[in-house]
Specification:
- The protein is 20% helix and 28% strand.
- By secondary structure, the protein is an alpha/beta fold.
- A seven-stranded mixed beta sheet has the order 1-7-6-2-5-4-3, with helices on one face.
- Helix 1 crosses helix 2.
- It is globular and about 40 Å long.
- Bound molecules: adenosine-5'-diphosphate and magnesium ion.
- Adenosine-5'-diphosphate (ADP) binds next to helix 1 and helix 2.
- The site of adenosine-5'-diphosphate has 18 residues, from helix 1 and helix 2.
Length: 137
Protein backbone atom coordinates (compact mmCIF):
# COMPACT_ATOMS: atom_id res chain seq x y z
CA UNK A 1 0.00 0.00 0.00
CA UNK A 2 1.26 3.50 -0.76
CA UNK A 3 0.22 6.73 0.87
CA UNK A 4 0.96 10.24 -0.36
CA UNK A 5 -0.30 13.67 0.59
CA UNK A 6 -0.94 16.19 -2.17
CA UNK A 7 -1.17 19.96 -1.74
CA UNK A 8 -3.47 20.83 -4.61
CA UNK A 9 -5.49 19.40 -7.50
CA UNK A 10 -2.51 19.47 -9.87
CA UNK A 11 -0.57 17.18 -7.57
CA UNK A 12 -3.51 14.81 -7.28
CA UNK A 13 -3.82 14.71 -11.07
CA UNK A 14 -0.10 14.05 -11.37
CA UNK A 15 -0.36 11.23 -8.86
CA UNK A 16 -3.27 9.76 -10.83
CA UNK A 17 -1.20 9.97 -14.01
CA UNK A 18 1.73 8.12 -12.44
CA UNK A 19 -0.60 5.50 -11.04
CA UNK A 20 -2.21 4.91 -14.45
CA UNK A 21 1.08 3.93 -16.06
CA UNK A 22 0.75 0.49 -14.50
CA UNK A 23 -2.77 -0.18 -15.73
CA UNK A 24 -3.74 -2.66 -18.40
CA UNK A 25 -6.87 -3.73 -20.27
CA UNK A 26 -9.53 -5.19 -18.01
CA UNK A 27 -8.31 -3.47 -14.85
CA UNK A 28 -10.95 -2.08 -12.52
CA UNK A 29 -9.91 0.68 -10.11
CA UNK A 30 -12.21 1.50 -7.19
CA UNK A 31 -11.97 5.14 -6.09
CA UNK A 32 -13.51 6.07 -2.75
CA UNK A 33 -13.66 9.09 -0.49
CA UNK A 34 -16.22 11.66 0.51
CA UNK A 35 -17.63 14.37 -1.73
CA UNK A 36 -14.88 16.77 -2.81
CA UNK A 37 -12.07 14.46 -1.69
CA UNK A 38 -10.62 14.52 -5.20
CA UNK A 39 -11.82 11.27 -6.74
CA UNK A 40 -12.67 12.79 -10.08
CA UNK A 41 -9.48 14.87 -10.01
CA UNK A 42 -7.43 11.71 -9.54
CA UNK A 43 -9.32 9.92 -12.33
CA UNK A 44 -8.80 12.94 -14.61
CA UNK A 45 -5.03 12.68 -14.19
CA UNK A 46 -5.16 8.95 -14.78
CA UNK A 47 -7.22 9.45 -17.94
CA UNK A 48 -4.73 11.97 -19.30
CA UNK A 49 -1.95 9.44 -18.88
CA UNK A 50 -4.09 6.90 -20.73
CA UNK A 51 -4.37 9.28 -23.67
CA UNK A 52 -7.83 10.69 -23.03
CA UNK A 53 -8.09 14.19 -24.49
CA UNK A 54 -11.71 15.06 -23.73
CA UNK A 55 -12.90 16.67 -20.49
CA UNK A 56 -13.16 14.28 -17.55
CA UNK A 57 -15.95 15.19 -15.14
CA UNK A 58 -18.21 13.14 -12.91
CA UNK A 59 -20.99 11.54 -14.91
CA UNK A 60 -24.17 13.35 -13.90
CA UNK A 61 -27.15 11.91 -15.69
CA UNK A 62 -25.86 8.39 -16.24
CA UNK A 63 -23.90 6.01 -14.04
CA UNK A 64 -20.96 6.16 -16.37
CA UNK A 65 -19.25 7.43 -19.44
CA UNK A 66 -16.68 6.18 -21.89
CA UNK A 67 -13.56 7.96 -23.10
CA UNK A 68 -11.36 7.13 -26.04
CA UNK A 69 -7.67 6.99 -25.24
CA UNK A 70 -4.79 4.65 -25.98
CA UNK A 71 -7.06 2.25 -24.17
CA UNK A 72 -10.78 2.80 -23.85
CA UNK A 73 -11.68 4.09 -20.39
CA UNK A 74 -14.93 3.62 -18.49
CA UNK A 75 -15.63 6.12 -15.71
CA UNK A 76 -18.46 5.23 -13.36
CA UNK A 77 -19.98 7.17 -10.49
CA UNK A 78 -22.39 5.11 -8.40
CA UNK A 79 -23.22 7.89 -5.95
CA UNK A 80 -26.88 7.91 -6.89
CA UNK A 81 -27.32 4.17 -6.82
CA UNK A 82 -28.74 3.43 -3.39
CA UNK A 83 -28.71 -0.27 -3.81
CA UNK A 84 -27.56 -2.25 -6.77
CA UNK A 85 -30.23 -4.82 -6.00
CA UNK A 86 -32.71 -2.37 -7.45
CA UNK A 87 -30.67 -2.10 -10.61
CA UNK A 88 -30.04 -4.37 -13.50
CA UNK A 89 -26.52 -5.87 -13.14
CA UNK A 90 -26.19 -5.58 -16.90
CA UNK A 91 -25.99 -1.85 -16.25
CA UNK A 92 -22.45 -2.35 -14.96
CA UNK A 93 -21.49 -5.04 -17.41
CA UNK A 94 -22.18 -2.60 -20.21
CA UNK A 95 -19.25 -0.53 -18.94
CA UNK A 96 -16.85 -3.10 -17.57
CA UNK A 97 -15.40 -5.01 -20.47
CA UNK A 98 -12.05 -6.81 -20.81
CA UNK A 99 -10.83 -4.24 -23.33
CA UNK A 100 -11.31 -1.29 -21.03
CA UNK A 101 -9.73 0.22 -17.97
CA UNK A 102 -12.48 1.20 -15.53
CA UNK A 103 -12.56 3.72 -12.69
CA UNK A 104 -15.45 3.46 -10.25
CA UNK A 105 -16.29 6.32 -7.90
CA UNK A 106 -18.52 5.39 -4.94
CA UNK A 107 -18.00 1.67 -5.51
CA UNK A 108 -19.46 0.76 -2.09
CA UNK A 109 -22.88 -0.45 -3.09
CA UNK A 110 -21.53 -2.57 -5.89
CA UNK A 111 -18.14 -3.68 -4.59
CA UNK A 112 -19.02 -7.35 -4.95
CA UNK A 113 -20.05 -6.92 -8.55
CA UNK A 114 -16.59 -6.06 -9.83
CA UNK A 115 -14.56 -8.92 -11.14
CA UNK A 116 -11.00 -7.88 -11.59
CA UNK A 117 -10.20 -5.18 -9.07
CA UNK A 118 -6.68 -4.04 -9.76
CA UNK A 119 -6.49 -1.39 -7.08
CA UNK A 120 -8.49 0.48 -4.50
CA UNK A 121 -7.70 4.19 -4.21
CA UNK A 122 -8.95 6.03 -1.13
CA UNK A 123 -8.84 9.82 -0.91
CA UNK A 124 -9.45 11.93 2.13
CA UNK A 125 -9.26 15.55 3.25
CA UNK A 126 -6.11 16.40 5.18
CA UNK A 127 -6.78 20.06 5.99
CA UNK A 128 -7.23 22.90 3.51
CA UNK A 129 -6.18 21.82 0.04
CA UNK A 130 -4.24 18.83 1.31
CA UNK A 131 -5.50 15.37 0.43
CA UNK A 132 -4.29 12.00 1.61
CA UNK A 133 -4.26 9.39 -1.14
CA UNK A 134 -3.94 5.74 -0.30
CA UNK A 135 -3.40 3.23 -3.07
CA UNK A 136 -3.90 -0.43 -2.31
CA UNK A 137 -2.92 -2.74 -5.17
P1 LIG B 1 -14.86 14.09 -5.81
O1 LIG B 1 -14.91 13.44 -7.15
O2 LIG B 1 -14.16 13.26 -4.77
O3 LIG B 1 -16.20 14.54 -5.32
P2 LIG B 1 -13.53 16.27 -7.18
O4 LIG B 1 -12.25 15.74 -7.71
O5 LIG B 1 -14.68 16.42 -8.11
O6 LIG B 1 -13.94 15.40 -5.90
O7 LIG B 1 -13.31 17.69 -6.51
C1 LIG B 1 -12.26 17.97 -5.66
C2 LIG B 1 -12.27 19.46 -5.40
O8 LIG B 1 -11.28 19.79 -4.42
C3 LIG B 1 -11.95 20.25 -6.64
O9 LIG B 1 -12.67 21.44 -6.61
C4 LIG B 1 -10.46 20.53 -6.49
O10 LIG B 1 -10.04 21.68 -7.16
C5 LIG B 1 -10.35 20.70 -4.98
N1 LIG B 1 -9.01 20.37 -4.44
C6 LIG B 1 -8.29 21.16 -3.61
N2 LIG B 1 -7.15 20.56 -3.25
C7 LIG B 1 -7.13 19.35 -3.87
C8 LIG B 1 -6.20 18.28 -3.88
N3 LIG B 1 -5.04 18.30 -3.15
N4 LIG B 1 -6.51 17.20 -4.62
C9 LIG B 1 -7.66 17.15 -5.31
N5 LIG B 1 -8.59 18.12 -5.36
C10 LIG B 1 -8.33 19.23 -4.62
MG1 LIG C 1 -16.50 12.78 -8.42
Amino acid sequence: MSVVETRGPEETEAHGARFAEHLAHGDVVLVSGELGAGKTTFVRGACRALGVAEPVTSPTFTIGQLYAGRVEVAHLDLYRIGSLEDEDPALLEDYLTPERVAFVEWPGVAARAFGRVRAHVRLGHAGGDARRIEVEE
